[in-house]
Amino acid sequence: MPVRTKGTVYKTAIRPAILYGTETWAAKNVHTQKLHTAEMRMLRWSSGVTLKDKVRNEYIRGSLKVAPITDKLAETRLRWYGHVMRRPEDFVVKKCLSIATSKRGSGRPPATWLTTVQRDMKTLSLQCNDVYDRNKWCDMIKKADPV
User: Fold this and answer.
1) 93 vs 4, 11, 100, 105, 132, CA distance in Å?
2) 95 and 36 in a common domain
3) Which of 14, 63, 71, 74 is an S-S bond match for 145, by CB 3.0 to 4.6 Å?
């Protein structure tokens, strides 16, 4: 099977299965690293490359035309955020975003879904007002990761 076809199969069948439901995670670095590791193991296996071959990840991604899974994770999370923010104010999920949490203990506060979304928006230099124009929002997310 040609390498590009393997990349297409990965993008249409495997990656959606891996990313199913991840738009609602407050993903930590541990989670993203495990997703990256699993993805690279699959891509290396499908392209017939082992770690002993010392082929860089970027080369494997380029030959299969596959974007990093962490970028796709952020894309799905921002797409879901856009859907939620465009809903009416009495929508249940939108109400849940404004629920106050209990007092936190000492140390670093735990990552929340909203802080993760805000970090993704800051990385892509998106504004909160951009969310209400669906076409502009989707275009900005796609420009950040065209593959």
Assistant:
1) 39, 29, 14, 26, 16
2) no
3) 71
Q: Are residues 43 and 86 in the same domain?
A: no
What would the two tokens of residue 124 be? 């892509």
Number of residues that make up the chain: 147
> Closest Cα to residue 4, out of 64, 90, 91?
64
pTM above 0.90, yes or no: no
Provide CB contacts within 8 A for 68, sequence distance 6+: 36, 39, 61
